[in-house]
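Same chain as my last thread, 218 residues:
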Amino acid sequence: MTRAVIFDLDGTLIDSAPDIHAAANRLMDRYEFDQFSTAETRSFIGSGVPHFIGRCLRARGREDDTDLRARLIDDFMADYENAVSLTRVYPGVPEALSRLAADHALLGLCTNKPHGPARAVLEHLGLSDYFPVIIGGDSLPVRKPDPAPLHAAIAGLAARNVLYVGDSEIDAETALRADVRFALYTEGYRKSPASEIAHASAFSDFADLPRIVAKLLP
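reply #2:
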């Protein structure tokens, strides 16, 4: 039975919050809004760019301005694709991916980050070769927690025995709705205590992930 480990991206494999924060504040400056703190922008991450911009506008009292929202989404996307310079891989990620690949696990990506920025940051960080299948937030008409993106990643890998790895409540709900086992990386962007997020296994160190995969995907 073909084994696959499918990952979320932001907050799971990479800490992209500094780049997202900088891009959001460049946008706020352009439209003469007050800037956000890093903690504020981190709390907006996880449901894709339209949701992120909606949260930004809600925080500035302009959530009902649909024309402004559309302009901000377009302007943010134009900047976001190249916003990679501040993003860092979490410790142990390259080694864990290499070990999983050596153990003949197929690797895929299912993220709410748009496909273009996701591929750009993976290439910048030297991780793109690990992922033959990348499903982004704009790859389908729906985003996580709808299970369709995760199902699409599974189909793309032709996998039958699957573990989804993510860092958030949205990832956990996606896995549940897709009927896929879920491993929680506890050092990402979750908003709730780890104990309140449904998971088959939780870890804070990527050195532990190959052992978890071996246990959950024998």
